[in-house]
Design a protein that fits this description.
mainly alpha, transmembrane helix, single chain, membrane, transmembrane, Transporter
Length: 231
């Protein structure tokens, strides 16, 4: 195994571990099924991608098709609309219904199918759609960072900002820039991309947790010396 392949494996394992760990935590601790399931989907995609890379399977492999589908799923609706709706549960105390949860994932599923193999079919319009979706999501994430800063969670705000900036750079590079010296499988790009996606899931979960704790403190009744305390 070359150094490049080793770094790819480490980056992928990092993303998979973060996705499964914090996806489960989102569901167990906050009943946030939007972010929890999306994190798990990303981790599942990473697991498939790791096996595909280690086996050096070709583009005719079912694992390649699965990777392409899950990639389109998350880039179109998953780490865009679903991410925004999920984070709004702390920024706006938004409580989506089960119908909204199911509808969002159904929409992502359809989008994944329509955009599957877009490089060979739709081409540039699909690539532009992905970057526009990311830009709109980045605008909301900038607002999320601003709110974190305003409530005093400045460390989380900085890490969320770094993760968001790196995520935008990955999205802007994905279909438009080839890294000099990279191979046909874009291994160097994916080392950076997988590391970034893991960082995003890690930073956003921790920021979400801090925001949720802040909301809990603000909702708690204030007890003063003049306030009677029941037995």
């Amino acid at each position: 195994m070359s150094i490049r392949e080793l770094l790819f494996a480490v980056a992928d394992i990092w993303m998979v571990a973060v996705g499964f760990t914090y996806g489960i935590k989102f569901i167990r601790n906050y009943k946030n099924y939007l972010l929890g399931i999306e994190w798990i989907i990303v981790a599942t995609s990473g697991t498939n991608f790791l096996i595909y890379g280690m086996l050096k399977a070709g583009h005719d492999s079912p694992m390649y098709t699965a990777a392409a589908y899950l990639d389109a799923f998350s880039r179109s609706i998953g780490i865009t609309l679903i991410l925004v709706l999920g984070l709004m549960q702390v920024t706006h105390r938004y409580k989506p219904s089960a119908a909204v949860d199911i509808g969002a994932f159904a929409l992502a599923g359809v989008a994944g199918l329509l955009l599957l193999g877009y490089q060979d079919t739709i081409g540039l319009p699909a690539a532009i759609f992905f970057i526009v979706a990311n830009v709109l999501t980045t605008v909301f994430l900038a607002y999320f960072v601003k709110r974190l800063w305003q409530i005093g969670e400045r460390g989380h705000a900085v890490w969320a900002a770094i993760a968001t900036a790196c995520g935008f750079l990955v999205a802007a590079t994905y279909d438009f820039v080839k890294i000099p010296g990279d191979d046909a499988e874009h291994t160097i790009f994916y080392i950076f991309a997988l590391s970034t996606w893991g960082l995003q899931m890690f930073a956003y979960y921790r920021a979400y947790r801090a925001f949720a704790e802040y909301n809990k403190r603000m909702a708690a009744p204030t007890v003063t010396g003049d306030t009677p305390v029941s037995a």
